[in-house]
Specification:
homodimer, 203 residues, alpha/beta, Helicase, Ruva Protein, domain 3, 2 domains, four-stranded parallel β-sheet, two-stranded antiparallel sheet, 8 helices
């Protein structure tokens, strides 16, 4: 017998979060009610506001509350370079590395016929149009190196070929700081097949 | 450069949850926005409603949206037996074990002078009044077996002594299913000092 249907309902609601089971959901609910009502109120409001206002960028399909996301709207980015990623989280990661100055295009998934996700759901038509209309010179495909990501990358490259744009894919190999011993076989095989000749100074 | 201030705000808001760092907060935010807006809406509403309506039970101080929690209001519980716990989560755990049929009293913490938590904050006056007015026959102290919990239990026992009520404390020792090898020293020492003579059949 529990003491409150509203608390039960809150615990149940917290379980929609990824990686949150019944124990964590209970801990979160009681923590907010007992010790951080202020934070809970902010969370409830931030969530409501984000769900209401955040949609997709008209140009790159990432999540944003504006019609055009900040990156697409920025004058300081290189609009001739377009990186195709699977999800907005990938943009967060790439932006954090501060290694890329172009714009993006978000597929919001990868090709997965079994789940009914085809080229239409990924907005590939929109990407092709964007490439041809906005004078993009290079498309960098940054799909995840999974079976579905590889299939999506291959399909994209095929579709982009007629437009004559340069199509590249980010490098896969041993991560920096990683130890060879702990790297899986698939990554190692990629690292070998993608090896580069070290330029030698000619004496 | 991130694409949306509202998403940033949501990520920040998720960090008020226990055990949620920046990465998890980002994952939760994007998961809800991309894949489970329905669940996010439910969470936001459940949180708002719980924060607005859930208060403390007039009799036992646990969290509830009613004036008297379900356990205190129940006719099928033994109202002569009162278990004192530190938090509502403890009630959840005890109720799940279905091993207790009495009522509760929630301290909402433990004595901790350094944080300004004294007998007043723990409602000990209210507990003493409840014991004397409601004809409680036994108070079972189920504070956590920590330094502060022990101090709280000791203080409670002292305060309850004049009322003549039976005061007991739940047993501490090796957990069922636990392996002796991995049990810490404090627990083992409790287990030894709390040992019981096995009754032997007299032949």
């Amino acid at each position: 017998m529990n003491s409150s249907p509203l608390i039960e309902q809150l615990i149940e609601a917290f379980r929609c979060l990824p990686g949150v089971g019944p124990k964590s959901a209970q801990r979160m609910s009681l923590h907010l009610l007992e010790r951080n009502r202020e934070g809970g109120k902010k969370l409830s409001e931030a969530l409501e506001e984000a769900l209401e206002k955040v949609g997709n960028c008209r140009s790159c399909r990432t999540l944003t509350e504006e019609e055009l996301c900040r990156i697409c709207a920025s004058g300081s980015r290189n609009h001739k370079l377009c990186c195709v990623v699977e999800s907005p989280a990938d943009i967060f990661a790439i932006e954090q590395s501060a290694s890329y100055q172009g714009i993006y295009f978000v597929l919001m998934g990868h090709l997965s016929p079994i789940d009914g996700i085809g080229p239409e759901q990924l907005g590939i038509e929109q990407l092709l149009e964007k490439v041809s209309k906005e004078g993009i010179e290079e498309v960098i495909i940054a799909c995840n190196p999974t079976v579905e990501g590889d299939a999506t990358a291959y399909y994209l490259a095929e579709q982009l070929r007629p437009s004559g744009v340069v199509v590249s894919r980010i490098a896969h190999g041993v991560p920096i700081g990683g130890e060879l011993e702990y790297v899986d076989g698939g990554t190692l095989s990629h690292a070998f097949s993608g090896r580069k000749v070290i330029e030698q100074n000619q004496g």
